[in-house]
Amino acid sequence: ENAHLLQRLKRERNLLRDILTNMAEGVLVTDGTGKVLLANRAATALLHVHEGENLSPWLLSQVSGEKGEEASDNRRIVEFEGRTISLSSAELSGGYEMRASLLAEPTVASNGRAQPNEQVAPEPSVTQVGAKPLSIYVARDITHEAQVERMKSDFVAYVSHELRTPLTTIKMLVRLLLMDTAKETKAYEYLSIVNTQVERQARLINNLLDITRLEAGKYDLPPEPVDPRRVVQNAFGACRPLIEEKQLRVEISYADGIPETFISNNNGLEQVLINLLSNAVKFTPKGGLISISCRSDGETICFAVRDSGVGMTPEQLGRIFTKFYTVHYPRKKGEGTGLGLVISDMIIKKLGGRINVTSQVNVGSCFEVYLPIKGLPPTKATVPAEAQSVVAQIP
């Protein structure tokens, strides 16, 4: 009977080995020192590693946090949060330009609880390493996907740029015609409609260009001293015509302990606050109240925009992170592009912060922007596959 069980275990082990060997994804198992305990055929071809060897210094730095803050961030992402990081280097696949995504899953210890820095081993021989932490990495060639994404971004940027030039001319001519047309005439009414639609198209094009640059990592947000009071006043000034048109009341408050300046980026933060405030104006009924506040706990600074508008349902709240999604309400015409919140969230993440949102139907919504006071060094823009459910972006 024992012989039969051993034979069965051997067959299952061989089957598992065959599956791992012929997988399209590269599977790599290392110990705490970076020694490769297992590497299937795809991992060898993609990452140029073999069983018994040590990971190259470059690849080890990407997953172990030995070199620089970015490597440390990768280690935290891979080992503690179980997310995917993207690798791009000529060292992959023998010098050819190639990109790979690398995924590590949390392990389950003998007591059944997930433990950081340890990974489940794929076969018994690996589990016998002892108390040393193991790591399992799954690599996938995404070179073609990256090329397609780059082509798409280049196309959007080109088309958007070509559309922006004639729209600017049309907008200027329409404004000149409006200045020479009596307000009581039908011609003025029609020209006003044209002007509104041209402005809407211009906003859409600008948003497309912004999100393309963010996704390509070409949206520069250099760290600089930021005066929190000034960025709030600038955002309010930009939205003031809309606020006065709807006769809204706006309360601006600053809590004690707000720093005179903090390290972030003026243009990026201003753009986000303008997006949030314009959203609040859009969904707050005539004569309603909007409050803008700023507070700090010494380590982070928070900008909050609260409206007294229609609010959002949990279903709507869960979808505001989707590109081109706009919140629609009965008897209310949607004017958003569905990109403002996406862009705002990407900007704030690039600045090292986050946006939280709470909302209640017929009560209103509150968007809170949290940023570190000391700021973060500039890094390449990263775009999450899906936004967190409690992190906001703008319709």
Describe this protein's structure:
The protein has 395 residues and is an alpha+beta fold. The protein folds into three domains: 2-141, 2-Layer Sandwich (Beta-Lactamase); 146-215, Helix Hairpins (Orthogonal Bundle), CATH 1.10.287; 224-372, Histidine kinase-like ATPase, C-terminal domain (Heat Shock Protein 90, 2-Layer Sandwich). It is 44% helix and 19% strand. The chain contains eleven helices and 14 strands. The strands form four sheets. The chain has a five-stranded antiparallel sheet, with helices on both faces. It has a five-stranded mixed sheet with strand order 9-11-12-14-13. α3 packs across α4 (68-81) and α9 packs antiparallel against α11 (340-350). It starts with a helix and ends in a 23-residue tail after the last strand. Residues 64-85, 88-100, 104-132 and 377-395 have low confidence and may be disordered.
